[in-house]
Amino acid sequence: MMTYKGYTATAEFDDEAMVFSGEVVGIRDVITFQGKSVEELETAFRDSVDDYLDMCRERGEAPDKPFSGRFVIRVSPETHRKIHISAKKEGISINAWVNRALQRVTG
Hints:
Layout: E1 2-4, E2 7-14, E3 19-25, E4 32-35, H1 38-59, H2 77-90, H3 94-106
Antiparallel strand pairs: 1-2, 2-3, 3-4
Helix pairs in contact: 2-3
């Protein structure tokens, strides 16, 4: 994984074409890049993000932002009650309890 200006990308190596290909993840817009070495890949990633931000600025559009870390989740009232009780027992907020639980299951 690579990160630049808050954008994260993944990359793969194509052993037939002998090139690294990458894509920015976590946004709706598509930003891709390539390089024949790790250094070229990193440079292409930064250039692609900068080009994307410039293009959005020229068009007067707001660029798609990476995940904010906030999302709404709906659960049953019973599950909500159980989460509240569990968090209270641990002396932490529901937010902290859910964050800890999600970190355990996602690694």
